[in-house]
Write a sequence for this structure.
């Protein structure tokens, strides 16, 4: 057995450590070179040859990492989100005006078992901010019979609102709330529905089923649709759209692709109660015409003919024929009475002279049969209201009627219609 001195042992240990360090350095260098070569190969195979030239500033920015100055090859960078032109259009309109659409909730009064009035939750709908002072345009049926009105903004704030004016015949209403100081309201601009085309793209924002500020898109499916709201009211020139409109969308805006309001979403046709692709909107031109009156007077002043008229129906037509007062037409309005000394009488219109009863209704026959106003056919009471919808008190209108078998014409000065 050979013995070594302490100095020899120390020298041997030192040599071994140095050798190990040198070997480790060589191994690390080899691994690093192999890794760089592999990454270069991966980048070259994944990137088209046309894009391997000098990187553009945009690509250089994409290659930078938020973790520092470490460069990550573009080929393994997650692809950035891109949008089509149509998507950008939708996104732009929504981001600009979704906060201009409010959610309207109501409270109504009901009677409890003790015959006491008790407030309870009413319906809900949508509305469009049309003035930075807090004026909101919505549907009349959204706020009808409301005891209290509340406007809910996009930031979660809630304000009590007051009814400014309503027009049931166009199903429109204006309400107002007082925003807190510093609150910035962005009104939705009015466009026009006069130049709409079937097939044109439209977007709707509203609060269907309480889901606030929902965007739906579709096209104009039809124009000039007359929709009968009740026995006396026909909503004229309605816009038909397949953009999804559901309960809660009522009162919200219908946009064109320029971000202009072209209609006020009002109703749907649905056997099930949900959207089936047939929705209707009041043309914004109607709102442009009546909103100033609603803000000023709280109502719309319309013209009226001072008369009472009965819509012709088969039993009445048959009775007139049997009584020798047969009508040359089967559709029209039989003038039962005219106001004595009124404008209709002064214009030459005549009421009936023979009283008859139909059910519980008593009226007079033998008078003129009105068939048109300003060239618009009038064959029902609803059409009478529709023909006079755009008129004002004091305005002269041309009325056509039958007296016996003779078709006649006269001009009538309208009075203000009483509610």
């Amino acid at each position: 057995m050979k013995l070594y001195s302490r100095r020899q042992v120390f020298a041997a240990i030192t040599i071994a450590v140095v050798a190990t360090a040198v070997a480790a350095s060589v191994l690390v260098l080899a691994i690093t070179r192999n890794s760089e070569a592999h990454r270069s190969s991966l980048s070259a195979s994944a990137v088209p040859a046309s894009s391997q030239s000098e990187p553009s500033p945009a690509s250089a920015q994409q290659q930078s990492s938020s973790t520092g100055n470490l460069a990550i090859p573009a080929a393994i960078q997650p692809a950035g989100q891109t949008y089509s032109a149509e998507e950008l259009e939708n996104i732009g309109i929504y981001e600009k005006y979704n906060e201009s659409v409010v959610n309207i909730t109501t409270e109504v009064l009901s009677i409890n078992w003790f015959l006491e009035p008790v407030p309870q939750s009413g319906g809900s709908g949508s509305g469009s901010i049309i003035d930075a002072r807090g004026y909101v345009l919505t549907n009349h049926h959204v706020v009808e019979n409301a005891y209290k009105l509340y406007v809910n903004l996009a930031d979660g704030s809630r304000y009590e609102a007051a009814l400014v004016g309503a027009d049931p015949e166009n199903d429109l209403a204006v309400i107002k709330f007082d925003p807190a100081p510093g609150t910035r309201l962005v009104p939705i601009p009015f466009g026009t529905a006069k130049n709409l085309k079937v097939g044109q793209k439209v977007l709707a924002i509203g609060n269907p089923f309480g889901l606030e500020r929902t965007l739906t898109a579709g096209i104009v499916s039809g124009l000039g649709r007359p929709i009968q709201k009740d026995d006396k009211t026909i909503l004229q020139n309605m816009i038909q759209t397949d953009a999804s409109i559901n309960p809660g969308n009522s009162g919200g805006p219908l946009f064109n692709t320029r971000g202009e309001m072209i209609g006020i979403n009002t109703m749907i046709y649905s056997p099930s109660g949900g959207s089936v692709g047939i929705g209707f909107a009041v043309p914004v031109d109607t709102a442009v015409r009546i909103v100033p009156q609603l803000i000023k007077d709280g109502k719309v002043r319309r013209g009226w003919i001072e008369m009472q008229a009965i819509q012709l129906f088969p039993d009445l037509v048959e009775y007139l024929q049997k009584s020798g007062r047969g009508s040359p037409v089967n559709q029209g309005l039989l003038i039962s009475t005219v106001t004595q000394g009124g404008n209709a009488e002064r214009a030459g219109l005549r009421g009936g002279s023979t009283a008859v009863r139909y059910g519980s209704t008593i009226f007079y026959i033998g008078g003129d049969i009105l068939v048109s106003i300003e060239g618009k056919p009038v064959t029902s009471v609803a059409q009478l209201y529709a023909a006079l919808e755009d008129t004002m008190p004091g305005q002269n209108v041309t009325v056509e009627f039958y007296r016996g078998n003779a078709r006649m014409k006269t001009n009538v000065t309208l009075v203000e219609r009483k509610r």
Remarks:
- Helices lie at 6-46, 57-63, 85-97, 140-143, 284-297, 314-322, 343-346, 381-387.
